[in-house]
Amino acid sequence: MRYKAVLSYDGTRYHGFQIQKNALGIQGVVERAFRLMTQSVIRIHAAGRTDKGVHAKGQVFHFDSDLDLTLENWMRVNDRLPLDIRVLSIKKTKPDFHSRHDSKSKKYRYVIAKNPSSAFDANYEVYVRGLDINPIKEALPYFIGTHNFRGFCQLVKGKSTIKTIYAIDLKETKKHYILTFHGNSFLKYMVRSMVGTLIEIGLGRMEPMMIKTILETQDRQLAGKTAESRGLYLQKIYY
C-alpha cells in the first residue's frame, strides 16, 4: 500500500531534508520515527529537498508499507518525532503516485522583517536595514513567465534550468514583507538567489532592470548574494 503524507518542520537545527551520513537531515529523523513505531524499515520519498535551515509548512512525501495500520495509528508517528517536525496528514493514495514526479507546481514564501529580529523570531525571518520596497515591487514582474534561470541557481548536472514562474505575491504586514513565489518547480538556491538580488535592488545597489539582464545573459556573477535560508519556507505543493 502506498501512502501520501504532508509534513511541516522548523529547519533551524537540520542540515536540509535529505538523509545525511555525518549530519542531521529531516528524512533520517522521520524514517527513524517510523522504524521505532513499526519495527520495520520504511523509506520516504519527498517532493523536493529543502536546504539547511529552510522551513516547510507543506512538504509532501510518499512511502510504501504492507502493515495493517489505520490512518489514525500511522499518525502516531508524531509521538516519536521531535516537536520541530510534525506530520500533518497521512492518507492512502494510488500505487503509482510519486510525490516528486506528480507535483504540478510549488509555492515558496520568503519573510523579510521590517525591524531587527528578537531572539524568538531570528530563525524565521531576515532583517535588512535600510530596505526600500518600491524598487523591489518594480522588479518583480521581470521574473514572471518561462525563462532560463541559470543566473539564479546553483547548477546541478543534467537538470534543466528552464522554469516557469506563474506569480509572485508581495504582502506587507505591520512587521514583515512576505514574498510568495509560485512556479512549476525550482532549482537549487533559486528562490534565495532571486530574493538576494531583490534585496540588492531594495538597497539601491542594482536597478530593477538587472533582473531582465541576468535572465537574458544567464550570468550568475551579476546576481546578488544568496539570501539567508532562515527566511525561506516551502509553503505548498500542488498535484
Report what the structure shows.
- The protein is an alpha+beta fold and 239 residues long.
- The chain has two domains: 2-93, Alpha-Beta Plaits (2-Layer Sandwich), CATH 3.30.70.580; 105-238, 2-Layer Sandwich (Alpha-Beta Plaits).
- Helices cover 19% and strands 30% of the residues.
- It has five helices and ten strands.
- The chain has helices at 26-38, 71-74, 133-139, 190-202, 210-217; strands spanning 2-9, 44-46, 55-64, 85-93, 105-113, 126-127, 145-148, 162-172, 176-183, 232-238.
- Strands 1, 2, 3, 4, 5, 6, 7, 8, 9 and 10 form a ten-stranded mixed sheet that branches.
- Helix 3 (133-139) packs across helix 4 (190-202).
- The longest helix has 13 residues, at 26-38.
- It starts with a strand and ends with a strand.
- 32% of the residues are buried.
